[in-house]
Amino acid sequence: MMNSLQVELQQRLAALEPETLIVHDDSAAHAGHAGSGGGGHFEVTIVAQAFAGLGKVARHRKVYALVADLMPARVHALSIKALTPDEL
Q: Lower CB density within 10 Å: C or N end of the chain?
């Protein structure tokens, strides 16, 4: 079951029209670290044509642009794997 922040991340990243979008709350693995305890650390895997022709940094910037206002208050850490459909 997804928490509300996971749902919000998915809704925002839907703007990239992903073929695949997985938002995993990894906060439990960071117990005792800032942002743990039910929210804050997320892993995102996103496959979208929107990343075609872009390098890794540019892809990450596209993702961060959609969630920047959530950081660092609600999202402490965001691990991103951004691919095009051709890279699967």
A: N
Beta strands 41-47 and 77-83, pairing class: parallel
Give pTM, 2 decimals.
0.87
End-to-end CA distance of the chain: 26
For residue 18, say if its preceding peptide bond is cis, omega within 30 degrees of 0.
no
Q: What is the pLDDT of residues 57-77, one digit of tens each?
A: 999 999 999 999 999 889 989
3-state secondary structure of 23: strand
Question: In the structure encoding, which two tokens stand for residue 85, read together?
Answer: 């459909």
Of the candidate CATH numbers 3.40.50.2300, 3.30.300.90, 3.40.50.10350, 1.20.1740.10, the domain formed by 4-87 belongs to 3.30.300.90
